[in-house]
Amino acid sequence: MDIKEGSGVNAVARSPSPFFWTGGPIGLLILHGFAGTPSEMRPMGAFFHRLGYTVHAPLLPGHGETPEALRRTRWTDWVDGARAATLRLAEAAPGGVVVAGLSMGGAIALLLARELAPRAAVVLAAPLRFRDRRAYLAPLVHRFSPYRPREGKKPPHIEAHLVPYDRIPLRSVAELWRLLRVVRRELPDVRVPLFIAQGLRDETIFPHDAERIYRRAGTPPAKKALVWYPEASHLIVLEREKEALFRDIARFLHTHVPGAPAPPESGGAPV
User: Fold this and answer.
1) Buried b vs exposed e over 197-226: b needs ≥16 C-beta within 10 Å?
2) Class assignment of domain 17-256?
3) Domain extents for the chain?
4) Is 104 annotated as a binding residue?
5) What is the model's pTM?
């Protein structure tokens, strides 16, 4: 799929296509989650584009197509895709790049933070472990049971933004576990300003993995923050608290990234 550059914020909400919205000198890369698409990141992208950021949400390799396409990729492909997107965004953002991600995207953002030393990293509901213990069997089970049906739907205000698969390839779940193992090992070498957000009603991961990320990351305490959102589920960027979340991120970046746009006052920058 082609990435369309410009200010086309009013794109179709459920489109799995990547987006690249040109703005000011600070770039914001936002990475979707496992088996997700940039569609789930559009409200966040629109908020920060209105503030003046240049925003890019890539479609990670194997995603947004078919379960079979996802099954053919490896975790290194997802990281390579995110890295290439970061470097592309850097060409359009002379003030530097902030990397952000939801769930698996947050885990990849941590790896990019260690490798590329961006201006800051924003980690949203990122896991270090599997909450569903069945997932640990994926490296064995996928050989004779390659897919798991999607289980249930999200609330309507969240589902409206999703472009989900009807089944999840278990080989890809095994690849996700390999990625998380690398993230846990690399966390002490993350030293950039770090904002961590976690919903207390997260139904997908262990919420307290956020505390583990905060403690293990090598970022000095004065340059990292962990903020809890009591009513938020796993897809925190689509929850009813999302506007408060985006404002908190904007305030953190304005404090720790010289030249970052000022956060909106209460009631500004609609989501």
Assistant:
1) bbbeebebbebebbeebbebbebeeebbbb
2) alpha beta
3) 17-256
4) yes
5) 0.90
